[in-house]
Specification:
Helix content of chain A: 40-55%
Structural class of chain B: alpha/beta
Largest sheet of chain B: 6 strands, mixed
Largest sheet of chain A: 6 strands, mixed, barrel
Number of helices of chain A: 12
Order of helices and strands of chain A: HHEHEEEHEEEHEEEEEHEHHHHHH
Strand content of chain A: 15-25%
Number of helices of chain B: 7
Oligomer: heterodimer
Distance between the termini of chain B: 28 Å
Helix content of chain B: 25-40%
Structural class of chain A: alpha+beta
Number of strands of chain B: 10
Radius of gyration of chain A: 32 Å
Strand order of the largest sheet of chain A: 3-4-10-7-9-8
Bound molecules: adenosine-5'-diphosphate, magnesium ion
Shape of chain A: elongated
Strand content of chain B: 25-35%
Distance between the termini of chain A: 29 Å
Chain lengths: 402, 233
Amino acid sequence: MLELKPMLSALWRNKVPALLIALQLALTLAIISNTVVIVKDRIAKIERPTGIAVEEIIAINVMAIPNNYDMIGAVSSDLELLRKLPFVKDATITNQVPLSRSGSAGTFYTQPNQEVGGEVSNRYNTDPNFINTLGLKLVAGRNFTNAEMQYFDPSEIRDINVAVITQQFADKIYPDQDPIGKPLYDGNTSHPIEIIGVIERHLGAWVDWSKAGNVAFFPIVRNTQDVNYLVRAEPGKRDDVLKTLVDKLSERDPQRVIKTRVLSEYVARSYAGDNLMVKVLSIVAATLSFIVALGIVGLTIFWINQRAKQIGVRRALGASRSNISRYFLIENSLIAVTGIALGSAAALIVNQYMVRDYSQPVLTLLPLLICALLVLVVSLAAALAPALRAANISPATATRSV
Amino acid sequence: MLKMHNVRKSFRTDTIETHALRDFSLEVKEGEFVSVTGPSGSGKTTFLNIAGLLETPTGGQYLLDGEDVSNLNDRQRSRLRNEKIGFIFQGFNLIPDLSLFDNIDVPLRYRGFSAKERRKRIEKVLEQVGLSARAKHLPAQLSGGQQQRIAIARALAGEPRFLLADEPTGNLDSLMARQVMELLEFINEWGTTIVMVTHDPELARRAHRNIQIVDGQVCDLRPVTEQPEAATA
Ligand SMILES: Nc1ncnc2c1ncn2[C@@H]1O[C@H](COP(=O)(O)OP(=O)(O)O)[C@@H](O)[C@H]1O
Ligand SMILES: [Mg+2]
C-alpha cells in the first residue's frame, strides 16, 4: 500500500519546500557528525588513563629565599618529614608536575652521537619513591635505588646511568624489542643510560602534546632554588593532609616560600580548553538540531495546511486517519533520506578539510551512521505532530470549501 | 440502499447553534437516480456528507445497505466510503500534483488492489469518460468539463454501488453540464444508485425523482413536475 511513485512525483512538483528541508537536514548532518567526532575525540583525550593516582596527590613548590640555600640538604629532611606525616602514603621530589603544562623534555637516541631519528620524551628528575607516590605500575625490570641517586649542582655535568621509562616510550624507541638493559643516549652524547625498568603508563606535563605518554624518569636531583614535591595521601585523606603541609614544612625551615596545589586542579586546568570545546560544540549541535526540528515542524505544518483540501478529498475517497498520517511521515522520511544522503557526502567532504587543515579526527562510518539515524529520528519526531494533526482534517473539507 | 430516519445535524459555534438537518427522513432505493434541490444553506450538502459518511449525524438513524453506520469507527467508515461510495464534487477536487492516472489511482490504492488490477480499472474508466489519451496530463491542463469527467472516472473506478454528487455541474457551462449529466445517466443505467444535488431545474427533472430540501427537512417527495425557484449557490 506504499504510494511511493505518485508521492515522489507529487514531491517533484513541490521541489522547493522539499529541497529546503532536505538541505537543512543535510547541513545539520554535516555539522553534527563532524562535531560528534571532535567531541568524541576530546572526551577520549580527557578520559584517557593517566596511570597516576590523580585524586590522592598534592603538589608542593618550595622556593628558597636565601640565595645560597642548600636545597639538597633540605630535600632529604623535607621528604623524611613528609613521609612521616599522618595519612601520607609516600612523597617524592620531581622537576616537573605531571599534567601541569610546565615541564621538561628531551630527545633520546639508541646509538651514541646519533644526530637523526631519536624519540622525544618528557623527562623527570626524581627519586625511587616516584612509582609509589604517583601510583604507577612497574611492568618490567626494576625501580632505581637510593644508591643510584645523584645530587649535584646545576653547573656540574654528570652522566646519568639508569632510567625507568614508560611502555609507550619503550615501544617507540625499541619497537618489538625487550627494552630492559638497552641503552638510551641523552641528546647527541656518547654515554649510555641503561633502561632498567618499564612502567605501564604515565602522562607528562603537556596534555595537548602527542608525545605526552613518552616519559623517562632519572634518579637525579639538581641543587636549584626551588623544588617540587609530590605527596600522596591515603584515599580520601588528601584534603586533611593538605591543611597541615605548609605549616609543617615552614616549621621545619622558615626560609622558604611554600605553595601547594592538588594535582586534580592542575588536571582540570590542563583540560579546561577541551572541556569548554566539548560543552560549546555539544550546545551548538543540540541547538542546531532543535532549530532544524522547529523548521521542519513549521514547514510541515505550512505544507499540510496548503494541502488541507487534498487531505479532505483523500479522506472522502477512502483514506483512513492512519493512511493520512502515514502519507506525511513517509513523505518526510523520503525528504530526510535525501537530506541524509546529501549530508553524508557533505560531512565527509567537510571532514577531509578538517583533517587536512585542522588535524581533527577522521569521521568514520559508525559515527556518521549514528548521526544520520539521529537526524532521521529528529526529522520524524518533528513531522509527527503535524502528521497526526493532518489526520484530523475532516473529510467534509472536500465538500465544504470550494 | 439508503435509509435515514429522523436524522438531525447541528453545528455549534461559540455563539450560535445551526440546525442544518432536522428530523430528516428519506429512503433511496437501489438503482434510483435522485436529484436534490433546495435553496442555498438548506442542508443539501450536509445531507450528502452524512449519506457519504463524511460527517456523522447529531441524532437519528442512518442505514446504508441495511447496516447501521452510526457506531462504526474511522477505519470502518473509511473502508465503506472507499468500497461502496463514489463522490463527485462541484469543484472537481482533483489532486493538482498528480497526473490524471494517479488521481484515479488514489482510491484504488486505499482499496489495496494489485498494480495490475488498478491499471486495468483505470484504463477502463478513462475510456468510459473518453479521456484515455490524457492519462499522463496534470489536472490543470484540462478544461473544467474534462476535469469533472476525470473526477467521475475516479469515483467510478472502484465500482461503487452508490454515487453522491454535490452540484457536479455547478462550475460548468451548459454544454459541458449536459455531457456530465449524460455520463451520470449512463452510469445509473448500469445499476449505480445516484444522488445528485443540483441547482439546474432541467437536470433535476431528468432524475427519476426529485427531493426538495428546505430548512433542513425534506419538503416534497413527488416525482418532478415543476421546480421551485432555483436559488443561486
Ligand atoms: N461546519 C459548519 N459549521 C457551522 N455551520 C455549518 C457548517 N457547515 C454547514 N453549516 C451550516 O449548515 C447549514 C446547511 O449548510 P449546507 O448543508 O452546506 O447547505 P446547502 O448545501 O444546502 O447550501 C447552513 O446554514 C450552513 O451555514
Ligand atoms: Mg452545498
